[in-house]
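Each field is set out underneath.
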Amino acid sequence: MATDHDTHTPPELTLDAAVHAPPRDAAPRHTLGIDGAAQPHNEATLRAWEGLPPDAMILSPVFGPPPMRCPDSAWAMLVTAVDIISDVDPDHAGEVALFAGTWVREEPPVDSGLYDGDLVVRLNAPTAPSFTLTRNRAADVEMLLAYQGRWHRIGQWHGIGRSWPSVVAPTAAAVMGLHSDATEAVMRPDTASPPTSPPLIRWARSAIAELLAAGLVTAGDELVWNRRILGVRHTARIRADGALILADGRTFANPCGAAAALCRSFQNGWNIFSRMSDGRTLGELRAELRVRRGKRPSSQQRPLHGKGIVS
């Protein structure tokens, strides 16, 4: 049976538990991280180290200046990973160990619940003049959460400079953690067999169950999350009710909860879990279902200004 490892020290490679790092001309440069372990010295290697999508931007640790505006071709930045150092390391507690995102070209429709839990950041020109920063070095940062069929504004920061990733990352981590915990509590996917009756709460329906109903995935499909530089391969299996079963038997209602259980950070599991048979990510399969349904953004899906999921 496959075994999952969760450590910053590369484990001994075994055929059923790890994947070999891709061949390269020379070993990547590393430096010592906060926890004393070797950390990647460049953005591409860190993506492979953490198993992030190839188009993910690493905003923290800093490898270069962060974007200060969304590109013209993008609607927002999807938060793909965030890690805040806990009190276990009192000297660095609260510091941002990892913050990464990918550009989203257009506003996804959230009324179906397919995108429930997605957290995005929008970078806009500052609406008020800044007394310390020029306009091109400042941004109004807006954070939105897809929740129960709408985009909810979770936070907004005005006239913030290039330090914005470290400022908004703790909020992103808190929101992703709370939403994942709430989803798992509502779904309660801890029974040995699928439930015999549909959930009483409409939004509790697993988005993966939607993929099952559409025939885009099947019960028993194997999923994998390769963290190549660490030599780790995490595996999961899709259950008949849309829950994910990890290699150690733990069961989760959604891929984000499963990903968080496998590492010490919050991850958007839709972008990191791929189907072993063809390499397609759950996010790609979700996008195909969106195309099949012909969904387009509408004014009814815009953020509820002044309303959020946390009072």
